[in-house]
Amino acid sequence: MTASWPHSCSARTPFHLAVFVMTAVAFTSTMTQNTSEIMCGFISQKDEGSEAPQTSVAPKVPNILEDLGCYLNSQGTENIYQTIKNVEVNVFEDIELRITMSIPNIISCFWFFKKSKACELSFDSENRYITSLAFSQIKEGQAGKYTLLVTSKSGNYRVVVPVLIQKKPAKPYFRKRDKSDSIECISESYPQPSVEWIFCKTPEKSCPYKRHEETGEIDGKQMVQHELFQTYIWCCAVNVLGRECTSLFTIDLNERQAAPFPELLLKVSEPLLIRCRAVHQNYKFRIQLSFENREVEQGCHFEGLEYQENFSAIRIQYVFVSAAEKNYSGHYTCSSTAHPNQTALITVLEKGFINITDSKEDFEIGEEEFCFEVNFTAYPPVRCMWLYSNRTFPCIQSYSVGGHSISSKFCNHQHQSGIYVFYAENDDAVATKKFTLYVRRKPEIRMQLLFKQISCVAEGYPASSWVWRNCLELNSSNCAEEITEGIQNFLPERRSLGSWISSSTLHVKETATTFSVECCANNSAGSACEKRFINLSVAGAVSSPLDNAAFYVSVGFFLLLITFVLVFFFLKYKKQFKYESQWQMIQMIGPSDNEYIYIDFREFEYDIKWEFPRENLEFGQVLGSGAFGKVVTATAYGINNAGDSVQVAVKMLKEKPDTAEEDALMSELKMMTHIGSHENIVNLLGACTLSAQNKMKMN
C-alpha cells in the first residue's frame, strides 16, 4: 500500500461539541406583558431506576405538571415567548411538553426541532387551546431547543422551550490546543463535569500512585507537553451522575508489541491525537511517528524531552489532526534509533456502529446467584439500559484495555421469571438483545373435594409429576402406601412465563367410609404434599372435617349479618322520632313569666286562600339545602295582579318525604299564617300543598 500523509492537519474546523448551560434570568420589564396569553409546562414521569443504584428497581413517580414560566420576550410582527425555567430531565425518561394558549382563531401551528411537525390542538375546561409534544424514553440526541410556531388571525407566535438532558459525562477525548504545544481533555454533558488527569505506572486507572487536577471549565483542563511524560495517562470526567475515563492513545517503545496491533477508532471530523513514547539510558536517541512508512508533514507533530533522576531520558512525539478524514485511516509506526519499531492501526469511520456478540438467550436458574451479560463492540461509546416489565434499570459498562470491547452485566432480576432486554444506542446506531429467564420454583398445591373425586392442582416450574398415597391410620403422618389405581393425570398448562399448572384427580371407590389420603407434586426444584381426612357420606359425596368447619363459619357469619341488619333497622326506627314537628308557640295567659300555654299548630286548620298555582312558578338557582329539602329562588307570576312577576324564595320538601317531614312543613306554614305580615320578619306569600309533587311555601 502506498499512502502519503494528508495535508492541512490543522486548517479544518476543529471538532468540538458545544456545551451550553442555560441560566434562568429574571426579566422584569417584559414578563409583565401578556403573561397569561401563553402558559408553558412539562410533565415528567420519572423513572427512579434510570440513574439509581443497581440494587433497586425503577418505580414510576406520578405525573406532575410543572410550570416553566413563559414570558413575552419580544413583540412585533412575531410575538416570541421564552421560558424562565429549562426542562431538565434524565436520559430515558418519559416527558411531555404542554403549551396552553389563550389565543383566539388559531389557523395553524407546528413544532420544530431539526424538522417540523404539525401540532395537534385540543381544548381544556376553560376553552383554551392546548398542544403537547410527548417523548417516550427521551434520548441524548433529543436535547436542544424546541420551538412552537403558531399562526392566528390576531398575529404570529413563537414559543421556545430548551430541553436539557441530565446524564453522566460522555467519554472524554483529547486534542491539541490551538497555537500551543499542549493537550486538552474535553467531555460534554449536563450537568457540567469537572475533568481529572490521572498518571499511572500500570494500565489500570485505579492505580495507587496518581496525580490529578480538577476544573469546572467546559473546555476541560489543558496540560502542557512537559507534564505528559508518564507511561499511562487517563483523563476522567466527573459529575453528580457518574464518571467516565479515557486513556491517552500511546505507542510505547519500551513495552512489548501487542498482537494484533492496538487500534484507535475515530469518526470523520473527530480530532486525531497519537503519542509515541520511549525511554533510554541517555538522550542520544531519536524517535519518529510515520504514517504508512511516510513521514508526517511538518506542523502536524511536536515532541518533547525529559530527563530522569538516573540520567535516563524520555522522548515523546505527538501526531495530531484537528478533524480526521477517511484517508487518515492506516498504520502509524513509532520508530527509534535505540528501540524496535511498533505499529498501531487508526480507523476513521463514516458513521458509528454497535455490534452485539451472539450468546445464549434462554436461562433456567434456581436460587443460585446469576447475572445476564452482554458483550459488544461499539463506537462512539453507547448509552445503555436494561428493561424488564416496563421498568428501566441502570446499565454499567466495563471496557477492555483497547476500549472497544465492552461488556455489561445485570444481576438485579430478583429471581423473577420474564423477558429482559438490553438496549444500547449511540449517535448512529441502536441495538437490543432479549433474554428469557426461567426460575425454578417448587410446586404449590391446592386440594379440592368433589363428588366421588379428590383433585389436586399444583403451580410451579418446571411442570410437576404426581404421587398419591393412602395413610395407614386416620390421623397418621405416615402415608407410605402408594395409590396406583383410579388416578387421572392431566397435561400441564402454561399459565404465564415460567409457571406451569399441573393437575391430578383421584376417583374414590366406596370400599371404606373414612380414610386419609395424600397427594404430592414433584419437580426439579422440590416437592410439596397435601393431606386430608376423607368422610364418604351416604350419598357418596366426598367431605372432610374442614368442610364442617367451613359450614359452621358460614352459619356464624350469616347470624352475625342478620343481627347487624336488625340493629340497623331498630336504630333507624328510633331516629325517626327525632324528626317530629317542634313548631309550637308560647302564648302568655297572665302577668307572670310562668303563666303561658303551648299552641300546637298541627291542631290548626290550613286556610286554603294561601294556595298558589304551581304552574305560575319559574324556579331559579338553589340557595341552600338540608335534611328535609331545599330553598330555591323563583319568579312568581300573578301573585298580586295578573301579569305581574315577583322574585320569591321557595322552601320545598325533598322527593318522597315521610309523614313527619310533611307535618313539620305544614306546622311552619300554619304558624306563619297565624302570625301574619311584619316588616322585620320573612313574610309568607303563598303555598303549594294540593299538588301530588313536593309541598312548598313562598316567602
Automatic annotation (TrEMBL):
Q: Which UniProt keywords apply?
A: ATP-binding, Disulfide bond, Glycoprotein, Kinase, Membrane, Nucleotide-binding, Phosphoprotein, Signal, Transferase, Transmembrane, Transmembrane helix, Tyrosine-protein kinase
Q: Where does the secretion signal sit in this chain?
A: 1-32
Question: What are the GO MF terms of this UniProt record?
Answer: ATP binding; growth factor binding; transmembrane receptor protein tyrosine kinase activity
Localization per record: Membrane
Question: Mind telling me which residue stretches traverse the membrane in this protein?
Answer: 549-571
> What membrane topology was assigned to this protein in its record?
Single-pass type I membrane protein
Q: Domain Protein kinase, which positions?
A: 617-699
Question: Which residues does ATP bind?
Answer: 651
- Where does it sit, as one GO cellular component term? receptor complex
Per the UniProt entry, what is one GO biological process? Answer: cytokine-mediated signaling pathway
Q: What is its EC number?
A: 2.7.10.1
Reply yes or no: does the keyword Protein transport apply.
Answer: no
Q: Provide the protein name.
A: receptor protein-tyrosine kinase
* Organism field: Taeniopygia guttata
Q: Top-down, what is the taxonomic lineage of the species of origin?
A: Eukaryota, Metazoa, Chordata, Craniata, Vertebrata
